[in-house]
User: Fold these one by one.
Assistant:
Number 1:
Amino acid sequence: MEFITSETSSMADFDLETPFPTPHGPDLPSDTPNYYLFNVESDHMPAPTYHRSLVSGAGAFFVDTRRKIMSLVLRLSRHYGAVTSYLALNYADRFLSYHPFPEEKQWFLNLAAVCCVILALKMTKTEFSISEIQQDAGAIFDMQNIERMEKLILGTLSWRMRSVTPFCFLDFFISTFGLEGPPPRRALKARARQIIFETQTEVELLKFKPSLISAAALLSACDELFPLHFHCYKETTFDTTYLNADDLLMCYSVIQNKLGT
């Protein structure tokens, strides 16, 4: 079986919370990493028309294709942890939004799912077997086709594989809440991370920026863990620069509805 490990990967270390080797651009001071992420987050989202295509009456095939690739990616990545699954799903959504899959070509969907998982595993420097992943997919592809699909995904995503996700903004928003001591901060962050993982496949969240999802997930966590302080935290978050209060309220409602189902 052929294995790809961290030693054979040329990609630098990656973490969902700190996607870039240096958290600021060359022209930005070192104490403004979060502002840089706010400025580039839109570049790491699906195409602007993606959400509309999925919710429109004419998007039945599109919806079914997304459902299938989400399910397959989750199945293929289930042994590698939540971070790998999240990153692979992120790649799949972005790829599908810019490169619609051909109808009646299940092999294309299977190959894309396999390669999204492989790319996520490479980014997280996780040891894996391509043969085992393909066996889980129920399809065997030669290395030439796998490499071609990887290149197609990389090109479609403009090589932006260090995804800016809601996890990048958690510490920034938590720092504005004025929580006393590490324990409540850790508890809040842990619950918000869980909410982000749980709600990733929700179609209605695709129209919101990662920072909005991060803030909304934290508000949902606050409502559960610190209900007496929720109003104060909500007002603080709504006043945060770079966030639109109306969009944040809508995003929060989507997450609350998803968690309530």
Number 2:
Amino acid sequence: MLTIASRLDVMNRLGRAMADPTRSRILLTLLGGPAYPAALARELELTRSNVSNHLTCLRDCGIVVAEPQGRKTRYEIVDAHLVQALNSLLDTTLAAD
């Protein structure tokens, strides 16, 4: 069972992940499926190092996971339930506006 302290930690990590506009853009893109840093950089018109730094933060927050594939690393949201929860949060917030 999650304690209040562990729930607070999760809320803080989610808030940190979504507080930055660039990380939010990366998350929105990853909601559509896994991606490589170079593809994210091209699509979002960012530098690869900028994308890599934000992906590291998202990974440290427990939101995304890195999947090594040979010389490349693919990033995806850590769990399908989190994808569903983030989409529901977006839909609910948009409906309330």
